[in-house]
Amino acid sequence: MQPRMWRGVVEEYREFLPFTDATPVITLREGGTPLLESRLGTPVGLRLLVKYEATNPTGSFKDRGMTVAVSKAAEARARGIICASTGNTAASAAAYAARAGLPCALIVPASGVALGKLVQGIACGATIIAVQAAFDRALDLVREAAPLLGLTLVNSVNPHRLAGQKTAAFEICDALGRAPQTLAIPVGNAGNITAYWAGFKEYRAAGRSKSLPRMVGVQAEGAAPLVQGHPVDEPRTVASAIRIGRPASWDGAMTAVRESGGTLLAVTDEEILAAQDQLAREGIFVEPASAASVAGVLKMGRARQLDGEVVCVLTGHGLKDPEVIQARANLPAPIPATLEAISERLSLG
Ligand code: F0G
């Protein structure tokens, strides 16, 4: 048998990406993530599949876009890269910059970035700057700073990021042999929903899939500018990754929803945490922002607003945000290291 190793999204989908022979491929062999069946759809009459993006090299979907953005930055002989982030973009930028041997600056909100994400940046040698502001202001700042400092901006306002992220839509079509009926996705800065929609359309135009999905974007109730139709000044939610009040790809998200006949909805923090728990009870551990897509689908399912087959995008790993679990569950107190004590604890004795 021919040896077969997943090559990363650039080599797997090169014809759909802006690469030439002169572009170095900076990769950690991202993508190739599993599409898993979930039991949670059954009670509401849905076939629920989840695209588990947590198995990417830095534990989130950001790696798909970062491999393209950092490869293009290396091709352009950039001095370094910079981004603002609620955490996952930062972790991914730090890893791919390290891979390319480029300096990396991360501008993050001083409060609310999950510890697991910050330590990834530190470990990979990035310069981390915490600012006394929320994400939206941090993004404004890096958009101004990048050209002044001669650094390449790798937020999703960089089109190469979105080009890479659309490969997740390709993988879903390849796994199913067609596009799903419905695609549900958490929405923060709105780059990912924009990228997925572009991906589904491009794949159909290339004759690689025959249909298009209905796009369902899910926001957290305290950070739901797209649902409310206006920016939110002080976004609040337990899902820190999507604590965003002024999405940069606002128009892209609205276009995806309108063109696909889809919808946007908001879910409460309680619904998000309940969905996170339910997913974990079938072995799928995600961070709160990711669970928003499932919370939204279950809510629509209960209201009989959805049927058939739904793919939910699970954007990031639960290990990145241990505090959110720890806040709700005490770690067990140690017991004597004896068989008796263990039997007693398990009520087997
Ligand atoms: N889920 C997770 C885990 C995220 O980290 C993000 C965005 C999203 C969903 C929303 O994706 O912004 O394309 O709509 N995180 C960005 C960051 C903002 O800085 O890591 P989006």
TrEMBL record:
Positions where N6-(pyridoxal phosphate)lysine occurs in the chain: 62
Cofactor(s) needed by this chain: pyridoxal 5'-phosphate
Pathway: Amino-acid biosynthesis; L-threonine biosynthesis; L-threonine from L-aspartate: step 5/5
Pfam families: PALP
SUPFAM superfamilies named in the record: Tryptophan synthase beta subunit-like PLP-dependent enzymes
The reaction(s) this protein catalyses: O-phospho-L-homoserine + H2O = L-threonine + phosphate
Binding of pyridoxal 5'-phosphate, residues: 88, 188-192, 315
E.C. number: 4.2.3.1
Transmembrane segments: none
Domain Tryptophan synthase beta chain-like PALP as annotated: residue spans: 26-316
Record InterPro entries: Ser/Thr_Dehydratase, Ser/Thr_deHydtase_PyrdxlP-BS, Thr_synthase-like, Thr_Synthase_bac/arc, TrpB-like_PALP, TrpB-like_PALP_sf
A GO BP entry: L-serine catabolic process
Single annotated GO MF: threonine synthase activity
UniProt keyword list: Amino-acid biosynthesis, Lyase, Pyridoxal phosphate, Threonine biosynthesis
Biological role stated in the UniProt entry: Catalyzes the gamma-elimination of phosphate from L-phosphohomoserine and the beta-addition of water to produce L-threonine.
The family this protein is said to belong to: Belongs to the threonine synthase family.
Annotated PANTHER family: L-THREONINE DEHYDRATASE CATABOLIC TDCB, THREONINE DEHYDRATASE, MITOCHONDRIAL-RELATED
Protein name as it appears in the record: Threonine synthase
